Amino acid sequence: MNTSSKVTTNITMHYNRTVQYFIASGGITTILCIFIVYQPLTESFLEDSSCMCNCAIDSEGDKWFYQRYRPTTHVLLNSKNSALDFNTYSWWRALQGESTVTNYTKVVEVLFSLFPDKNHFSNASPSRCRTCAVVGNSGNLIRSHYGALVDSNDFIIRMNEGPTKGFERDVGSKTTHRIIYPESAVDMDDATHLVLLPFKILDLQWIISAFTTKHIDMTYMYVRPTVKADMNKVMIIHPAFMKYVYESWLDKRGFYSSTGFISIMFALHICDEVNVFGFGPTRDGAWHHYFDDLVVDSNGGPHDGEFERKLIAELHQKQRIMMYKGF
Ligand SMILES: *[C@@H]1O[C@H](CO)[C@@H](O)[C@H](O)[C@H]1NC(C)=O
């Protein structure tokens, strides 16, 4: 973006904010926002930004959202932010009942001697418009023809085994980030960031092992001793982020967030516009993956699926995310 368009953006944003401040209704705000933002547009502004982005991060007075959303929370782990307070450490290690004596600090040291030690995604600004697609694994993607729409986003976040090969028309073909844990790990191509969702210190040891000695093949079940992925693109979700999502958003329902819900939260914190695909049941109320016929118990396991679905619906209704319901 050149300097003149940046100035335009800033003035517009400021005006936009001031006006929004006096308007309580979300619907009217949106209409005004479209009007105000698009009125003084230059062409370069149009290329770089969109109302959806600016409205989504700037509509103030949305008490419900800001009671829950903490933009300063650490999303990804690095060597400088890795210290965990006692409560976070205890909560995190209890998730899967890990009881072995392991020196977390020491494991983190090794972790960031191998993988990128960065302050990821610290470049948010009102003029940035990063669009993200979060693609869940629901059967409602079948015959959706969402593929091109998914692929048009800057980031495309998938989870666990969710494949693209053979399903491109409905789920897209690109994957920039794939969120996995040892028990759900799959190979990924060189363009994809492996994003580890760690539930225990052993998971951190596993990712180290997977790229070095390959000796860890057992957690509470058999896990792949190695995984194909670009080592320079590995990212690790911060345990404090998992606790924040559980407490601030899930109100401590269930035992911890599902991978799907945490993926949406991940996107809400690193993107300016979040488009969500492949969540929820099919139109017939069936719960299965788009890639197999296995019926999924949406309320089973350690998650409160119903509460998560309500939150997702609310985020959509408040225009913080855009839900594509599928078929
Ligand atoms: C854990 O490892 C760190 C860094 O290697 C070290 O400074 C610390 O003393 C160790 N803690 C314990 C309890 O062994």
* Total number of distinct structural domains: 2
User: What is the CATH-assigned architecture of the largest domain?
Assistant: Alpha-Beta Complex
DSSP strand content: 5-15%
Number of helices: 13
What integer value in Å does the Rg equal? 20 Å
Level-1 CATH class name of the largest domain: Alpha Beta
Q: How many strand units?
A: 7
Q: How confident overall, as mean pLDDT?
A: 84
| Heterogens | 2-acetamido-2-deoxy-beta-D-glucopyranose
Largest sheet entry: 7 strands, parallel
Helix content: 25-40%
Strands ordered across the widest β-sheet: 5-4-3-2-1-6-7
Order of helices and strands: HHHHHHHEHEHEEHEHHEHE
- First-residue to last-residue Cα separation: 38 Å
CATH topology name of the largest domain, in short, is sialyltransferase cstii, chain A
Structural class: alpha/beta
**Poorly predicted runs:** 1-51
Draw up the topology in text.
Elements: H1 3-21, H2 26-38, H3 43-48, H4 51-58, H5 63-68, H6 86-94, H7 104-114, E1 131-135, H8 147-151, E2 155-159, H9 168-171, E3 177-180, E4 193-196, H10 201-211, E5 235-236, H11 239-249, H12 259-270, E6 273-277, H13 305-317, E7 322-324
Parallel strand pairs: 1-2, 1-6, 2-3, 3-4, 4-5, 6-7
Helix pairs in contact: 1-2, 6-11, 7-10
The structure holds 2-acetamido-2-deoxy-beta-D-glucopyranose.
2-acetamido-2-deoxy-beta-D-glucopyranose (NAG) binds at residues 103, 105-106, 109.
